[in-house]
Amino acid sequence: MNVSEAVERRVSIRAFRPDPVPGAVVREILQAAARAPSGGNLQPWRVHALAGAPLDELKARVRANPFGEEPEYDVYPPNLWEPFRTRRFQCGEDLYAALGIPREDKTARLTQLAKNGELFGAPAGLFFSLDRQVGPPQWADVGMFMQTVMLLAAERGLATCAQEYWARYPKTLAEVLALPEDHMIFSGMALGYADETAPINTLRTRRDPFEVWGDMRGFDD
After folding, report:
1. Annotated domain spans of the chain
2. Fewest beta carbons less than 10 Å away: which of 27, 153, 162, 177?
């Protein structure tokens, strides 16, 4: 598989098979992803990979606290404006349409949202944190590291779903992961094998054409 194929194959999977992912494969992916760039080579990412009993413990604690905790950062800016508001709204509508859940069925929508806390059935979860004192450039570095993880997973036939949902559980994750006090959780990621029979995995989120967000000048053609 080349890089272009991995980019095309990487999608947010929200239904996984229970088949375990070998720990050696997870370590291999994370170690290879450490070649991701970071300004000044700070390598600001910290990663915890959970499976089996440790992951079951985390899921149980989330089930016991379905409303979450006070997040330490805003996943989305308050009062989201255009075009971001429409993009987010359309993503949600497409997701629930893939499941056949109408807008008025609030219970079904909340049930689907809660599946985030189960990592959508994935057998492994990755959790990314970083030092509280770093700034936006280092947050971007962690994002590039995560993207590299997802592409390497795709290359190995694995599926992923990046989940900033886990920002809702900073205290729980800090305790379960034994994070040092100077670190904070940024995101989680479900990792496993996609359930190809699940309707939700047919979702392909929309992308605006290049002309909406791109500009090129000075090229020959």
Report:
1. 9-206
2. 27
Output the pLDDT for position 200.
Answer: 93
- Fill in the amino acid letter for 117: G
SS3 per residue for the chain: CCHHHHHHHCCECCCEECCCCCHHHHHHHHHHHCCCCCHHHCCCCEEEEEEHHHHHHHHHHHHCCCCCCCCCCCCCCCCCCCCHHHHHHHHHHHHHHHHCCCCCCHHHHHHHHHHHHHHHHCCEEEEEEEECCCCHHHHHHHHHHHHHHHHHHHHCCCEEEEEHHHHHCHHHHHHHHCCCCCEEEEEEEEEEEECCCCHHHHCCCCCCCHHHHCCCCCCCC
- Distance between CA 89 and CA 104 in Å, rounded? 15
Is residue 65 scored above 80 in pLDDT?
yes
Question: What kind of fold does domain 9-206 have according to CATH?
Answer: NADH Oxidase (3.40.109)
Residue 221, pLDDT above cutoff 80: no
Cβ contact 8:102 at 8 Å: no
Q: Is the pTM of this model over 0.85?
A: yes
